[in-house]
What we know:
Elements: H1 2-6, E1 14-19, E2 25-29, H2 42-53, E3 61-67, H3 70-78, H4 80-100, E4 107-108, E5 110-118, E6 124-133, E7 135-138, E8 144-146, H5 155-175, H6 191-198, E9 208-211, H7 217-227, E10 238-241, E11 246-252, E12 264-270, H8 272-280, E13 291-295, H9 306-316, E14 349-355
Antiparallel strand pairs: 1-2, 1-14, 3-6, 3-9, 4-7, 5-6, 5-13, 7-8, 10-11, 11-12
Amino acid sequence: xxxxxACRTAELGGxxxxxxxxxHLEVSYNSCRNRHCPKCQAxxxxxxxxxREADLLPVPYFHVVFTLPGEVAAIAFQNKAVVYDLLFKAxxxxxxxxxxxxxxxxxxxxxxxVLHTWGSAMTHHPHVHCIVPGGxxxxxxxxxxxxxxxxxxxxxxLSRLFRRLFLDRLLALxxxxxxxxxxxxxxxxxPSAFKACLAPLRRAEWVVFAKRPFGGPAAVxxxxxxxxxxxxxxxxxxxxxxxxxxxxRWKDYRTADAATGQVKIKTMRLTPDEFLRRFLLHVLPxxxxxxxxxxxxxxxxxxxxxxxLRALIAAQAPDPPAPAANDNDLADExxxxxxxxxxxxxxxxxxxxxxxxxxxxxxxxxxxxxIDSS
Length: 374
């Protein structure tokens, strides 16, 4: 929270830029670069997306969401690093196991998982979004097996296996003494009480949601650009704020239309302390990776290169070209070397001074003039 409070203020230092044409001056303060800051993730997201673009395959992509039930979410909140890690691994193993089954796809697949811990109202709601190419490599590694362009894997089968894997491993973590319990959950430290808590969950339906397949690789990037580096709430959802409260827009999924799936957008107002409390629910443990790659898309130990995957895909279906990215999905970014434009005349703004943390620009800006000797 301290990092976000200091973000883009004089406390972190900054620089002065001057227009080459009209001598307009602007002071810009440094950002905190904290990964939970809503204002500091744009550059990180762009850099990450540039790397991911090189890994996109010319196949349809599917979107599968694995969600923890409320009873487990409470345990996860008190054991973030351990349980969030288990959520990732159970979801990835579920997809890879079912996909490898000859009754379904019969192939080795890859996926990218993105952890979200919030609902639209910023309540604690841990779930992982999995972005999966629609197909995989045969078990002998010699050919690409394409899945249906409209259907990936059966949701009920995924849900049952995910539930079993997660609960079995959660019990193993408890037996190994890797879970801690506080407040209302203190009683779960006893093995019998913990097993009794999990017993009803083995019969409940766990939510595994398969969304519509993406339109193509460009649509995958557009999705990732919006969601990979966002935390809890974006500034665009804020409506108003004062000393009494903060108002923001949220989606009430309980009002979803059964036919269209559309939900109502409502406005919620919280007291400042409650707004901050909800935001801080989603701070991750230090060093925890909220974006992970598995299977064919895993880094380092990847057995098959991206080039090899593309060659297998081309051999399987050489005719259809990869969908082209349109301007809305992948707008070209200006080169890093291009100087920003002056808001007054459109000229180039050039940095003329740097100042450190807690410092102010070296001379009063009001007395700085551009002298044209012509």
